[in-house]
Specification:
The complex is a heterotrimer of chains A (784), B (160) and C (270). Chain B has 160 residues and is of the alpha+beta class. Chain B is built from 5 helices and 5 strands; from the N terminus they run ββαβββαααα. In chain B, a hairpin with a 2-residue loop joins β1 and β2. In chain B, α2 packs across α5. Classes of the chains: A alpha+beta (784), B alpha+beta (160), C alpha+beta (270). At the A-B interface, α1 and α18 of A face α2, α3, α4 and α5 of B.
Chain lengths: 784, 160, 270
């Protein structure tokens, strides 16, 4: 097991670990000089527009491309058949999960562009390439797709019923996976013997990711080198290259993936999308770069959606309120097409993340993963972790109300104790560290819990209900895999970090530079980051699952160690001393016990100038290292939300929000806080505002920002933020990934607050989003 | 379809470009003038990523025709800083780390400048309301509002 | 967004130079709706800004609002003290989806002619007994009470080729006391219900209901109704009147309408 860094021994230099260093990329972005994919224009580039199905389900009878092909400026009109003929293979098929009976989950073949059936509104069926965007759009209107419509189904519970429309021939009842985890018998016994069982039907509503930058890609092919080049926004160029390799049937060395600035993603852009294959195909067919940029109205249909779980959750407790067992039964909606994370969020991530911070000896999860005629569902901030935490936190508040136990007390009775680590959960996690009881206390103090009743009385004077909710979460971050730690001393005196994570707003350049500066004493200002060039990567796990600081951070630390080793050898030669007498500290290689030494930057410069070195000595300080990774980390925290509700209108507002988080050793608190804020407001959006509506024909009724309500500046509270850090013991930095935690804390704290406010009507549960209409209807129903 | 010649002023400098009748001002700025700082986030005036200032008024450039720019004075994100010197609003965004992916940031900076040019002393509620036309999916708005209030104070010459 | 099918944009400076009407043309004022959605059927735009109609023309008989008057200009109007109903201008502007950016371009005429159920300018002009001044393509003109302008969601009484030149608000309406209440599912979202109530010196009371209904409903009494009478009248509206979309079900809209009406009643008559 890796030993974490001692927090005290970490440098408190201005740019060291733990410092709130402003971001390196901000001056560029603040002046509008960012380079997002659509900002790039390559010489001679052509423009692609995608033709999409306007019906949710149907058989393709014909696609007439002749008229479009003859229109001004049009250079090509292509369909799925063209991609097949070009040798493009099948799209990635999700993860390898097994059914409860041990058989493999269904993995129907999925072509980049469908040739037989359309399965959701927005399903791409053809694309037009022309000299200008306008010409391509005009011609796209002229592509005639003749579809014989079929009935559509949008709800998993209906899609698994006999007689429901079938999306794929070899996936009976649209059931991809019948997932089971846990001790069914033990749980059943515990449930029947328990003093109390709390049961809730909980919908975790579908979300449109709605990152601000629509997807965009530029595809090219160079026959002279037999190389494909794809420029796009994604979450990891190494992994994207791998996926492309399998579809294109090309070696990874013949594929170059480049990513610059990415305008948000939250999991969605990690997938390989069909439009990228379209741009590449056209790039090769036409011998010029082909650019495709999504329009927002299409983004609503084509970007994978998030969440969409439908579960019945049960918690068994003894007479003292001690948790005996947790059982989850439900559906995970896949949409019409598998993504590369299918079916993890509502299966394995539900297993790992539902116990949270509580001693719960028995666990069972049963999930049916189902195709429907809706936009494909992919990862979205937390990808099952916030959902799972939500089930437990809602069960606890409900159980407390049903059993007449204070809901804070109920949590305390079940906390995993601070001295219980390492702690093995029934989900197979080994929690390494944490102090859940103290963190809860800290959060309640920060939230001024004790004086809530005064605030509630004051709200009531204004005719408002006021509720207070707690969400104590624990997330299991993605198990980090291999990651590149590259360090390169450049001719201009800069030092470049090369690593295969990829940020889309998290601001990796700064904390990674802080770590490197801390390890090697290289001036912060001299450090650059390369993350988006697949040609420079020998490994790359991408960004997702809140693991980047652990993987890249660990990679940089190990690589730094290798640099120091090399440096000691070379410095010994330069200083004419024995290697064993060379120490490294504060950026200098010194002969121990003397003030004779050489700085690392000076040493690098000397190497560049050319030095006579003995034959078996390293000739450069540069390192390209692969870090094997570290186990999952367990960020956790307690969020406390207060809401005010107008009982006459149902209008609900978050009026106060406090949080205490354990993110372990924090590299840059300025950025970590921002990550938490963003996740929370996404959570508030899901809890109170964001609603995806499909009609019975599978048409998306909420397909624009006018109809799908994202939180705006007026909807968000300001935040009180404190840290209660317990260093992780299982990675080199002692860090716990923070990126997705905001959602995990916000969903339960906000909804528990809403239910708390409505409890005087006897309301025990309300589903998200708790729009004014939903709240009003709940009150009206409770009053009858 | 004939292109029209448009003469206008962008960020204090005379500018001209050819535009087709259907072209939005946003596209003209990005594609003809190569000022790619203004972004298309929605094309329907809902997200504010395309915000520019026309004759002192804040507008969505995706909702204006390029030909309508004729004779007007336009300020884009590229014209907010004073050469190499960041505008106080930009500096405060930097200090507070009030941006993450940065895509909404140009629109927010322009909208904030338009706000503070007219209302140098907004309350937090007023600031949130004024900026409600600019969507951000990353930051949760808290740091943005703190940066705006901090910039307002500095521009008024008070210590925040 | 771009409108790729548009082939020509005319900018006439006078009525004489208005191009002959085509089915595939549209009048362009602010463009805030026109440019926000694809317009596959349109081939030409007639930009009215060069007509240079004065935004607002107050006189003893009332206020003429040009169709091209922006929401911002209306909101900024400094009304005479004896036109208290002009206080609605700012409130109706605030009810417009989006923010100040939209006000700077969106026009009164555009808002009214689009005839969405949630159209604050429609509510305003119906509530204040506005009259639409329409130019006909053959050179004639007609005047149409705003109460008869809209017949359903995005359907109005304009005939092909007709151009809304202005809306006249009579002084009698502007002299009334007025109040507005609005509700939506989200803070700045599309209105689910927008109501305006007015009270004149002789006790005439009127309630205009928009957004929750498929077209503006104008309910009027010669003398102030009791709150029960007001509520009963709302409840008596046919079920089909209530609008249903993702911004609110009929049941909730009806509830909000009754509630907002009660508040308006209290504000003006209590």
């Amino acid at each position: 097991m890796n030993v974490a860094m001692d927090a005290d021994s970490l440098a408190t230099l201005k740019f060291g670990i733990g410092q709130p260093v402003p971001r390196k990329e901000d001056p560029t972005l603040l002046q509008g000089q960012g380079r997002y994919t659509d900002d790039i224009s390559l010489s001679g580039q052509l423009y692609a527009v995608i033709v999409r199905s306007q019906v949710a389900h149907g058989r393709i009878l014909s696609i007439d491309t002749e008229t479009a092909a003859a229109m001004p400026g049009v250079l090509g009109v292509y369909t799925g058949a063209d991609l097949v003929a070009a040798g493009f293979g099948l799209m990635p098929k999700g993860l390898a999960f097994k059914n409860r009976d041990g058989s493999d989950m269904a993995k129907p073949d999925q072509l980049p562009l469908t040739t037989d059936f359309v399965r959701y509104v927005g399903d791409p069926v053809a694309f037009v390439v022309a000299e200008t965007q306008m010409q391509a759009r005009d011609a796209a209107e002229a592509v005639m797709v003749d579809i014989d419509p079929l009935p559509a189904v949008t709800e998993p519970a209906l899609a698994v019923e006999p007689g429901a429309p079938q999306l794929y021939p070899n996936v009976p009842n649209n059931l991809i996976l019948d997932y089971h985890y846990g001790d069914a018998e033990g749980v059943a016994k515990a449930m029947s013997a328990a003093a109390h069982v709390t049961k809730l039907r909980i919908r975790n509503n579908r979300i449109v990711v709605a990152q601000m930058e629509p997807r965009s890609a530029i595809g090219e092919y160079d026959p002279a080198t037999d190389r494909w080049t794809l420029r796009l926004g994604c979450q990891g160029v190494f992994g994207m290259r791998q996926m492309l390799s399998s579809v294109l049937g090309a070696k990874t060395g013949n594929i170059h993936v480049l990513t610059g600035h990415v305008g948000g993603s939250f999991g969605m852009k990690a997938s390989l999308y069909p439009e990228y294959l379209c741009a590449l195909h056209a790039g090769r067919a036409l011998g010029k770069p082909v650019k495709w940029t999504d329009e927002r109205s299409d983004s609503f249909l084509s970007d994978s959606h998030g969440r969409d779980h439908d579960f019945t959750a049960e918690l068994a407790l003894d007479e003292d309120g001690k948790f005996l067992a947790l059982r989850l039964n439900g559906f995970g909606n896949v949409g019409a097409v598998m993504s590369n994370s299918t079916p993890q969020p509502s299966t394995l991530n539900a297993v790992k993340n539902s116990i949270g911070v509580y001693r719960t000896p028995l666990l069972e999860v049963n999930t049916k993963i189902v195709f429907t005629n809706t936009t494909p569902v992919g990862p979205y901030r937390g990808a099952g972790r916030p959902e799972a935490n939500y089930y437990m936190e809602r069960l606890i508040d409900t159980a407390a109300a049903e059993m007449g136990i204070d809901r804070i007390e109920l949590r305390r009775r079940n906390h995993i104790a601070a001295d219980a680590f390492p702690y093995r959960t029934p989900s197979g996690n080994d929690y390494d560290s944490g102090d859940f009881p103290a963190l809860l206390d800290h959060a309640l103090a920060l939230a001024d819990w004790d004086n809530f009743s005064t605030r509630r009385t004051e709200s009531r004077k204004r005719g408002k209900l006021r509720g207070l909710g707690v969400g104590q979460y624990l997330e299991v971050t993605a198990p980090p895999g291999a990651e590149m730690g590259g360090i390169r001393f450049e001719p201009d005196g800069a030092v470049t970090i090369i690593t295969g994570t990829l940020d889309y707003g998290q601001g990796h350049a700064t904390p990674f530079a802080q770590v490197l500066s801390n390890q090697l004493g290289v001036p912060f200002d001299k450090i650059r980051l390369i993350q988006g060039d697949s040609d420079q990567l020998i490994a790359g796990g991408g960004t997702g699952g809140s693991k980047s600081i652990i993987t890249s951070g660990g990679a940089i630390i190990e690589a730094s160690g290798l640099v120091i080793d090399k440096g000691k050898k070379i410095a010994a030669h330069v200083l004419e001393a024995a290697e064993i007498d060379i120490e490294f500290s504060g950026g200098r290689f010194n002969i121990a016990g003397t003030d004779r030494g050489i700085g690392i930057m000076e040493l690098a410069a000397k190497l560049r100038e050319g030095m006579q070195l003995p034959p078996d000595m390293p000739t450069t300080l540069d390192v390209a290292h692969i870090y094997k990774g570290a186990p999952s980390s367990f960020p956790n925290g307690c969020h406390v939300a207060e809401v005010e509700i107008d009982p006459d209108t149902g209008e609900t507002e978050v009026v106060r929000y406090s949080m205490v988080n354990d993110f372990g050793v924090v590299i840059n608190p300025l950025l970590v806080e921002g990550q938490a804020h963003g996740g929370i407001v996404q959570g508030i959006g899901q809890a109170l505002r964001e609603r995806v509506v499909y009609d019975e024909d599978g048409q998306l009724m909420t397909g624009s920002f006018m109809d799908y309500c994202l939180p705006r500046a007026v909807d968000a509270p300001s935040f009180a933020f404190d840290a209660h850090s317990v260093p992780a013991r299982t990675n080199l930095l002692g860090a716990k990934g923070c990126g997705e935690a905001g959602c995990a804390g916000a969903l339960p704290s906000v909804m528990n607050a809403v239910v708390d406010a409505l409890s005087e009507f006897g309301i025990r549960h309300i589903d998200m989003p708790a729009t004014p209409e939903a709240v009003w209807a709940a009150i009206a129903a409770a009053r009858t | 379809m004939s292109k029209q010649h448009v003469t206008t002023t962008i960020n204090g400098e005379p500018a001209e470009f050819l535009a087709e009748p259907f072209m939005s001002l946003l596209d003209a700025l990005r594609d003809e003038m190569h000022l790619t700082g203004s972004k298309e986030g929605c094309g329907s005036g809902d997200c504010g990523a395309c915000s520019i200032i026309v004759d002192g008024r804040l507008v969505c450039s995706c909702l204006m025709l390029a030909v309508e720019a004729e004779g007007h004075e336009i300020i884009t994100i590229e014209g907010v800083a004073n050469g190499d010197e960041l505008h106080p609003v930009q500096r405060k965004f930097l200090e507070h780390a009030a941006l993450q992916c940065g895509y909404c940031t140009p629109g927010l900076i322009v909208a904030t400048k338009a706000l503070l040019d007219r209302h140098p002393n907004p309350t937090e509620t007023e600031a949130r309301y004024w900026l409600a036309g600019n969507l951000c999916r990353c930051t949760g708005y808290d740091k943005i509002i703190r940066a705006v209030m901090d910039a307002a104070a500095e521009m008024r010459g008070v210590t925040a | 967004m771009d409108l790729p099918q548009i082939e020509s944009v005319a900018s006439p400076r006078s009525r004489d130079s208005l191009p002959p009407w085509r089915d595939d043309a549209a009048w362009l004022a602010g463009g805030t709706w026109l440019f926000s959605e694809p317009q596959p059927a349109l081939r030409s735009l007639v930009d009215l800004s060069a007509m240079a109609w004065p935004d607002l023309e107050p006189s003893a008989s009332g206020l003429r609002i040009a169709a091209t008057c922006t929401i911002a200009a209306l909101e900024a109007f400094r009304s005479p003290a004896d036109w208290p109903a002009a206080g609605l201008f700012g409130q109706c502007a605030n009810a417009l989806l989006g923010s100040f950016k939209i006000w700077n371009m969106a026009t009164v005429g555009g808002n009214v002619c689009l005839s969405l159920p949630a159209a604050p300018m429609l509510a305003l002009t119906v509530a204040l007994d506005g009259v639409a001044w329409l130019w006909q393509p053959d050179g004639g003109e007609r005047f149409l009470p705003m109460a008869d302008f809209t017949v359903g969601p995005q359907r109005n009484s304009l005939r092909p080729g007709e151009l809304l030149r202005a809306i006249d608000l009579p002084a009698s309406g502007l002299r009334r006391r007025a109040a507005l209440r609005q509700a939506s599912l989200t803070t700045l979202g599309r209105s689910a219900a927008l109501l305006i109530a007015t009270l004149d010196e002789s006790g005439g009371f009127a309630l205009t209901i928009t957004a929750s209904t498929i077209r503006p409903m104008h309910l009027a009494w010669d003398s102030p109704p009791s709150s029960d009478e007001l509520d009963a009248r709302i409840q008596a509206l046919l079920a089909e009147t209530w609008f249903d979309d993702v911004h609110g079900t009929p049941a909730w809209r009806r509830h909000m309408t009754r509630r907002l009406a009660a508040k308006l009643h209290q504000e003006l008559l209590a």
